[in-house]
Amino acid sequence: MVIEQQITKAIIAGIKELYGADVTANQVQLQKTKKEFKGHLTLVVFPFLRQSKKSPEQTAQEIGAYLVAHEPAVAAFNVIKGFLNLTVASACWIDLLNGIAAQPAYGLTPVTEESPLIMIEYSSPNTNKPLHLGHVRNNLLGYSLSKILFANGNRIVKTNIVNDRGIHICKSMLAWQKWGNGATPASTGKKGDHLIGDFYVLFSNKLKEETKALEEQGLSKEEAEAKSPLMAEAREMLRKWEAGDPEVRALWETMNSWVYAGFDETYKMMGVDFDKIYYESQTYLEGKAKVLEGLEKGIFYRREDGSVWADLTKDGLDEKLLLRQDGTSVYMTQDIGTAKLRFDDYPINKMIYVVGNEQNYHFQVLSILLDKLGFAFGKGLVHFSYGMVELPEGKMKSREGTVVDADDLMAEMIQTARETSQELGKLDEMTAEEAEEIARMVGLGALKYFILKVDPRKNMTFNPKESIDFNGNTGPFIQYTYARIRSVLRKAAEQGITLPEQLPLDFTISEKEENLIQLIADYAATVKEAGKLYSPACIANYTYDLVKEYNQFYHDFSILREEDERLKLFRLVLSANVAKVVKSAMSLLGIEVPERM
Question: What pTM did the predictor assign?
């Protein structure tokens, strides 16, 4: 912040004049004053006791007196033990607001052709079931992270890897073949991903019946599954798929096309997108080739049974299987293949994988393997590891069909927003179309904010009822405050008031207003912090603090009824810039804000 830099220079000059000593800007520790004390910025004076050879209180007193006498930005000071609390002059805050008002994209760093290129992988669905609540957290985190890193001046490629092959895909294909009676999304009126998900659950139920009968004959659970005719058919279908059997491949393509159409609808409703989609069916052979190349170079080794392994004991890990004895690939091999294709397609400076924390070990291994294979981004790859999402009732299981579908969840959120808004009378003067659009924005805003305000590394419980509340730390509370500010600005325009490009500096504002400007100014540092920590939660909780502070100001001060013309214009400019920052911050979370509510 400009004010901090100005005061830091004055402190360095003051210590030189008072004590004849040189100090650097790094030694000057200025921080926001705690709420219980008077002031805006606090200087920690302990580092300067060696120069002053006086007590902390006396040193703080002398530096404070020097600043009030020599630095116009400092209007007053008070000393609490070894801390010097500084009150910044009103003119400085108004000047700071003028500077923020002049920047439409305040807090965001422009991207150039020379900016680093960061690739972010998120979503990673399987084509045997629809997206569920866990995918919702993954998609929202990945998309928000892409927006935050772009706001920090990076070029971004958003990417998705679709798990479109394997035994789990064959299970839903086989169930459709055996019991589907030619069902299609058109004939059933079901989204394609939901239709295929039903067949995956059906396979699981039929398998349970079959293994239960075998267990009753005295077999163990593992023996029963190994002897199951249904599992044998699924394995045979996978073998045919890998051999390129035309009939199996045609069925696979048809069923996957239904799923992709369903996914596209879900992604569109969720408001997330991708620049490039990769498919495991296209990457696993690339991975296999790369592993065999590593084998030739002596990076990997082959065991007697023909399987290929990486020995990572020198890296403090264990040995990792890369190719099974029958030559088929494992997930790690597929990830190596995907990395190769991505590196061929883009000059990646950094690769970020948005994947749950149950895969921490996998990405530790992948980073080492990619580095050994010569990928420039290998060593520095980032596993953006996030916690699981549960419902108040507990965990979800897709095989048992107890998963909360993303589509159902979003529809429920929009319905709840519609009902809550109607009860509160927030849709009274709107057309049916406007009311529907507000319900969509509020419902999805509530869902996104509730998920993104939590530290991504933590497990969380998602409670739909708690998330749609027009009070407290929720999306609707922030959206409503934005709409309220836009309403004030519309009324000002109707009264013929034009906001000035620059406010005069020769009047005094209240402490509440100064604090609000300080909070707006903090946005730039918050965006940087969120980028450094890979944390949308930084943005979410900052936005709530800003909105909470604005609502107190709105409650305590007149805006359009203010008789002092300069104060009225100042408060309108202040409100407009709160709205600007709220809209920008919510956009980084992938959340829309309504102009009226």
Answer: 0.91
